[in-house]
Amino acid sequence: MIARAFSYRGSLTDARRLDAHLWKEKDQRPVLVETRNLCVRQTVEGMQVMAALTAASHAEIAFWHLYVSPRKTLTAAEAAKVVDLVVTELAAHDHPMMVFAHHDKPRAGGGANHLHLVIGHVSPRTFRALDMRHHAPRLHKVMALAAYLIEGEAVPSRWQKSIVEALRADGHGHVADWLIDELGVVPVIKAPRMTDSMRRAAQAADFPLAGFQPGLERLWKSPATEAEIAAFLERNGVAVGRGNTANVIAFRYENLFVGSLHRILRQDASTVHQEAQRRIPGLLDSGESVAPDAAPSCAPRELLRPSDAERQARLDLQKRIDAVEGQLAGLKTKRLSLIYRPGHAGSRDRKSQEAVAARIHRLARAESILDEAISLLWRDAGWMARSDLELMQAAEQIVTSAEQDISLGHSDVEITQDEKVEQAPAPGLGP
Q1: Quick one: how far is CA 353 from the chain centroid?
Q2: Concatenated DSSP letters of 270-307
């Protein structure tokens, strides 16, 4: 889970531009979740109220725009929890705020929804401005806490040391221990798959970058044949060529650079290039003759836009994956509680260390099965027509074959132990 913040001085042009972005309906469904300390009919009017409040102080900033991008699709309760954590950290309880959620967003390495928070810089009650000093590491600390509570998966940050110290000072030492165990004292931060400038350029060219890169990654990990990868590139109007060095495999749409293979896969460039020479030699040979500034023969732009049927199929797949990911996140957070806070695991009677260790082992195995089920859904859309029981049984067989030292009898013990997960047990894995 990641978050970023941007400040606005409050001009009407900026307010209208941000309002149009918040209500944008292309490939998503915007929803105004809630407003606090505001009584307006239009959201752009709320931003004007925030701008007018600066007249009561010497503040130059009118409001802040924060966005939160989770790794899983958040439920309404989880989204509210994240908002409360941010408001508490910034001490913004008395400040005007609008919360937006963008649903049904095409997946780009994260959940199918994300949040936008517009927070007024000046409070209408105290006329004091927000203390936004060092706001970036503070927001990263909040996201680390939210990841522990909701996702169970740590996100590296350049402010790891200060985040750990702040979490300990706030009484969340168990979260700090988890971050160090997962990421180390100095975490390795992988380069992003796409930069902000690349994203804006793709948006201006009407190229679906957020769908192309994850789609290529899933296709590569399938593993797909060279013909299937070539067909995918042709449908998107993308050509293969050499990057700035010999080991870099670059993709271009017309004159637009849309990514390099090792960045998309987040792996070493030499390793990816060697694998590409083995898997797609024909595409590489054809790409070597393409000049870097030459525009490839691209598919018509209307072919890049998914049809209504394709979009609905993608959303249906996303919803089914969300159901499995919700259970998977619940198991991860439960396992973290058993490891880092065994006394707060929710059990009425204290269990022995052996019993706790056995349950942690069962939870980890159940997580592996659910994770493999998600991989099956991404790799083969044919699972959409098959039952959850068949999906889980297939995933269980894959995990069992990969772990010969674990007997089959251990595979169907956990998943329903946690009361929250018990409301939606995974078929084929319950006792």
Answers
A1: 34
A2: HHHHHHHHHH-HHHHHHHHTS-TTPPP-PPPHHHHSPP
Report d(CA 376, CA 387) in Å as an integer. 13
Q: What is the dihedral of CA 38, 42, 43, 46, to 10 degrees?
A: -40
What's the CA gap between 121 and 126, in Å, rounded? 12
3-state secondary structure of 53: helix
CA distance 216 to 221: 9
Instruction: Grade residue 431 by pLDDT with cuts at 50, 70 and 90.
Output: very low
pTM of the model: 0.78
Neighbours of 167 (CB within 10 A): 21
Q: Cα–Cα distance between 378 and 386 in angstroms, integer?
A: 14
Tokens 């969340």 — which residue?
Answer: 172
How many CA atoms within 13 Å lie on the side-chain side of 294?
Answer: 11
Cβ-contact 18, 55 below 8 angstroms: no
Q: The tokens of 141 are what? A: 């600390």
User: What is the C-alpha to C-alpha distance for residues 152 and 138, in angstroms, rounded to an integer?
Assistant: 19
Helices (H), 40-132: 43-52, 76-90
Express each pLDDT in 256-294 by its tens digit.
Answer: 899 999 988 888 888 989 999 888 888 887 654 333 333
Q: How many whole angstroms separate alpha carbon 156 and alpha carbon 143?
A: 11
Q: Alpha helix locations (H) across 53-172?
A: 76-90, 135-146, 160-169
**Residue type for 134, please?**
H
What one-letter code names the amino acid at 124?
P
Closest by CA position to 249, among listed 222, 276, 226: 276
φ, ψ of residue 346 in degrees (nearest 5): 95, 0
